[in-house]
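Apologies for my clumsy wording, but are you able to produce some protein sequence, whichever is easiest, and the tokens describing how it folds?
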Amino acid sequence: MRSILLSGGSGKRLWPLSNDSRSKQFLKVLHGPEGSPESMVQRVWRQLNHAGLASEALIATSLPQVEILTSQLGDDVRLVVEPERRDTFPAIALAASYLYSVESVSLNETIAVLPVDPFVEKEFFEVLATLPEMLDKSGADLALMGVVPTYPSEKYGYIIPQSLSSSENNNKYVNVAKFQEKPCESDAVLMIEQAALWNCGVFAFKLGYLINLLIEMELPIQYDEMLKQYGRLNKISFDYQVVEKANQIIAIPYNGFWKDLGTWNTLTEEMGNSVVGKGWITGDSLNTHLVNELNIPVAILGLSDVVVAVSPDGILVSDKEASPRIKEILKNEDQRPMYEERRWGCYRVLDYTRNEAGGEVLTKRICISAGKNLSYQYHLLRNEVWTVVSGTGELILDGQSRMIGQGDTVIIDRSMLHSVRAVTELEIIEVQIGSQLIEEDIVRVSTEWQDIVQTYVKHA
């Protein structure tokens, strides 16, 4: 079995920690096995490794998430990157064309698709591993995993069963009659009485099933051609494009722990500590949580059932039940992310100003992890001034190499090629000055440090 993990989109429901570049799955607010901070994607990848499934898994993602995925999961994780965001059907089709034409995966291979951020225990992956067997025994087009409901939720979609069958080894599956999106509570009660399941977004199919469907739709099945034509694929979900049109669908019940940590209310239920970052909560503040990413203290006194989240992007103070309303408040906001995690480390925007003549000045604090490097790059719209705050690094500026350390200043005019590799953890204050200061103003020439040194450094 091959697995495709879907990691797309951007998030506002967990603002101000989540933004266009840092979705909810990347927030390090959970507790890892040894008590260290862990994100949802790191937790799921660790669980896949323990289940022996990670080596046959890849992540379908969007371009803005490549850096943070590499940072959190390492350079060995296999990514299929959408040229642009176009919903789940195009993303899965792109990944399927990669498996078929690049990795030469058999058309008879089972492909499992799952979100990158389910909050589950190991039993979930044990059921996931049964999907190929159930697909073979049933002869169905699609096999879904459905969660046995614990209460009549109005937040989830439901899988309505047709009949119950048993396989020889007592694994069970249900034939699916229909689906119901987010019913009212009274309808949910009736559906649960009919053995309906929560739809957790996990399903499987034979690779040949989807490849044949792409051929019928006159879409490319070669990965390189799919990349070229990706922009003409309809923005449509896999559910609408494939699931609703399938002839036979089964669902395998998962009677175990499952939770969608999509709101501050649900996320704080699984946080190991009530305070993350600098701050205090008084003892009479019950069921209250603080997540603080800034280096200033926050105090919460006598407030219960409240979440306070502080980041460079903003400050949220909310009753927990009301916290999902933040998405509605921010629907017209288009603020640039003030913090980003990259494959080499992270940066935080400290200040931004625009003068009367229209010039812009942006100040960043950049932290580069030891042994990591920026790409060899240049800019068209801005000049930069670097001041090294701490650490040491090797700088390459227009083909000249030298060491830099605390107190050194580097002036980088537009069009000057530059890169730096951190020997020890390197902290730099970067001041950008230009007519338009955007992250897209980067022309990358090379990424790997050895390639940069061997190809571009001028030797005397």
